[in-house]
Amino acid sequence: MTIVSIDPQRRIYLPKELGFNAEKAIIIPRGETYLMIPVPKEITPIDTDLTTNELKKKAEEKAKRETRDANRI
């Protein structure tokens, strides 16, 4: 576990040893905690008939499953 600092402007500073190598991240509230997902520098385009809301719902469901699976270890 790592404790990070938050400055008065609400910026979070992550220690290098965490290995979080991204310039941007998506923050997803999960009850009283948060899930932080790095955003890749290059986005791969996809061809789909799903709407943005449907894609978002699928991504959130996958993130929930992966979080549950990671917590089982």
For this entry, give a set of tags.
73 residues, alpha+beta, two-stranded antiparallel sheet, two-stranded antiparallel ribbon
Quick recap:
This protein is an alpha+beta fold.
Number of domains: 1
Question: SSE order, as H and E?
Answer: EEEEH
Number of strands: 4
Q: How far is it from the N-terminal to the C-terminal residue, by CA? A: 15 Å
- The global form is globular
What's the helical proportion of residues?
Answer: 25-40%
Structural summary, described in words:
The protein has one domain (5-71). It has one helix at residues 52-71; strands at residues 5-6, 12-13, 25-30, 33-38. The strands form 2 sheets. Strands 1-2 form a two-stranded antiparallel ribbon. Strands 3-4 form a two-stranded antiparallel ribbon. The model has no long low-confidence stretch (mean pLDDT 87). Strand 3 (25-30) and strand 4 form a beta hairpin. The chain is α+β, with helices and mostly antiparallel strands and 73 residues long. The radius of gyration is 15 Å and the shape is globular.
